[in-house]
C-alpha cells in the first residue's frame, strides 16, 4: 500500500488523503466485534470518565492520564440525564476506547503494525514511525457528540512537525451519522495552539480556539474499510450524530521517532515508565528495503 506520486501530491496539497478499500470486510468485522467484546467486559466504576470535546480540560482526571498506557473507556455526555443518571445501556453509552489499543490488544495491534500501515508510513518519509495513540470511536446513534474543529498536533506535538493520523472507517461514515469534515490546505498555516501538560498533571490550552468559516469545510463521507490520512496540522471536525445509525471508526496517530525529532514532556500523552512505544519499523529496515 505504498502511495503513488499523485497521492503524495494530493496529501501535501490538501492535508488529507482518502484511500478506498484499505481494509477488508473481514478485518473490519473482526475489529468491530472485538470492540464490542471489550465493552461487554468493561465494568464501569462509580465515577465514570466522560469525553466532551467542547469541555476537555474540565473532564481530565487521573483515569484519562493513565489511559496513555491502557485500554480505557470514556462515556458520551449524552448518555446521562441532568441528574447524572445513566440513561443509555453500556454498549450504547461509550464514546471511545483509548489510548493504547494498538499495543495491548492483539486484533488492533495486528492492524496497526500491518505491512500496509508500515508501507504508508514509509511512503510519507517517516524513518522510525511511532504509533503513539489509538482510539476506537463509536459515535453512538442519537447521542454521538460533536468533535469541534481541531488539529491533531495540538494534542500530540513534535518538533519538527511529523504527526499523521490514520482514520479507518469501520462503518459507513455519512453526512447523517457524523462523517469527518476538513478544511483543505489548512495544514499549511501550522499548529495554532497546544494542549499542555503541567508537571502536576493539569492540562490547559495555551491559546483560545481559532474561528473557522463553515463554508471552508468539505465533507469526507467514506464507506467502511476506507482510510483517510490526516496531516497533524489539518483542521477537521465531525458533527453530532442524531441519526439511528452509529459510525464506528479506529484511529492511530503516528509520529517520527528518529533522532532529530523531539516529543515534548508537555504533551498530554506520556507513556508510563517501562512501557515504551514500539516503532512500526527501525531505520535499518527501511534502508535495507
What does the model show?
- The chain is α+β, with helices and mostly antiparallel strands.
- It has a single domain, classed as q2cbj1_9rhob like domain (Jelly Rolls, Sandwich).
- Helix content is 21%, strand content 22%.
- It is built from eight helices and 14 strands.
- It has helices at residues 5-14, 25-41, 56-59, 62-66, 101-104, 106-112, 115-123, 283-288; strands spanning 16-19, 50-51, 71-76, 94-99, 129-137, 147-150, 164-169, 180-182, 195-197, 203-205, 218-220, 227-231, 236-238, 249-256.
- It has an eight-stranded mixed β-sheet. The protein has a four-stranded antiparallel β-sheet with strand order 6-13-8-11, with no helix packed on it. A two-stranded antiparallel sheet has the order 9-10.
- β9 (195-197) and β10 form a beta hairpin.
- The longest helix is centred in the N-terminal third of the chain and has 17 residues, at 25-41.
- The two termini are 15 Å apart.
- The mean pLDDT is 93.
- It comes from Auxenochlorella protothecoides.
Amino acid at each position: 500500500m505504498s502511495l503513488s506520486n499523485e497521492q503524495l501530491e494530493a496529501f501535501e496539497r490538501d492535508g488529507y488523503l482518502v484511500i478506498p478499500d484499505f481494509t477488508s470486510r473481514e478485518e473490519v468485522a473482526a475489529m468491530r466485534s472485538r470492540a464490542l467484546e471489550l465493552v461487554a467486559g468493561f465494568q464501569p466504576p462509580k465515577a465514570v470518565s466522560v469525553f466532551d470535546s467542547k469541555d476537555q480540560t474540565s473532564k481530565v482526571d487521573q483515569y484519562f492520564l493513565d489511559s496513555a498506557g491502557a485500554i480505557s473507556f470514556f462515556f458520551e455526555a449524552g448518555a446521562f440525564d441532568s441528574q447524572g443518571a445513566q440513561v443509555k445501556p453500556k454498549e450504547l453509552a461509550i464514546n471511545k476506547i483509548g489510548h493504547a489499543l494498538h499495543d495491548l490488544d492483539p486484533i488492533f495491534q495486528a492492524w496497526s503494525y500491518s505491512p500496509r500501515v508500515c508501507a504508508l508510513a514509509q511512503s510519507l518519509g517517516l524513518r522510525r514511525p511511532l504509533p503513539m495513540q489509538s482510539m476506537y470511536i463509536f459515535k453512538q446513534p442519537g447521542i454521538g457528540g460533536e468533535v469541534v474543529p481541531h488539529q491533531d498536533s495540538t494534542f500530540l506535538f513534535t518538533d519538527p512537525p511529523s504527526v499523521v493520523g490514520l482514520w479507518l472507517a469501520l462503518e459507513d461514515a455519512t453526512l447523517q451519522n457524523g462523517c469527518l469534515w476538513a478544511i483543505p490546505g489548512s495544514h499549511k498555516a501550522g499548529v495554532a495552539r497546544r494542549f499542555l501538560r503541567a508537571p502536576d498533571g493539569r492540562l490547559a490550552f495555551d491559546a483560545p480556539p481559532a474561528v473557522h468559516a463553515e463554508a471552508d469545510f468539505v465533507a469526507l463521507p467514506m464507506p467502511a474499510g476506507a482510510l483517510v490520512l490526516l496531516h497533524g496540522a489539518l483542521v477537521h471536525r465531525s458533527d453530532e450524530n442524531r441519526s439511528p445509525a452509529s459510525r464506528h471508526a479506529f484511529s492511530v496517530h503516528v509520529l517520527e521517532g528518529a533522532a532529530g525529532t523531539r516529543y515534548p514532556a508537555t504533551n498530554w500523552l506520556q507513556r508510563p515508565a517501562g512501557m515504551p512505544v514500539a516503532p512500526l519499523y527501525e531505520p535499518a529496515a527501511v534502508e535495507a528495503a
